[in-house]
Write a structure and sequence with these properties.
It is built from 3 helices and no strands. The protein has helices spanning 31-45, 48-56, 66-87. It is flat.
Length: 92
């Protein structure tokens, strides 16, 4: 599509949309359990065949800590809440 303009060329400044996946546990799950799950996930996501398959699916696995995931989650909630408010979209 040679005549298709980018979002920035279309006048939208600082446009960024990314997606991510995470695993959450119920509130109150002991930190020892979340640490165990996190360690196991890091181990699996570091396996060369798993990394390769995920890349084939267009996924770049970037394991994080439970605290980093929660910070990302909260930042995305705020970001999209601001987008909704600025766009005048009615919340239900």
């Amino acid at each position: 599509m040679p005549n298709l303009v980018t979002v920035a060329e279309g006048g939208v400044k600082d446009y960024e949309v990314t997606s991510w996946n995470g695993i959450f546990a119920p509130r109150g799950t002991p930190s020892s359990i979340t640490a165990l799950i996190n360690a196991a996930l890091r181990e699996v996501l570091a396996l060369p065949d798993v990394k390769q398959r995920l890349l084939e699916l267009g996924i770049e696995a970037r394991p994080s800590s439970p605290e980093e995931l929660m910070a990302l989650f909260k930042a995305d909630v705020k970001k999209w809440d601001d987008v909704i408010i600025n766009a005048g979209i009615e919340k239900k």
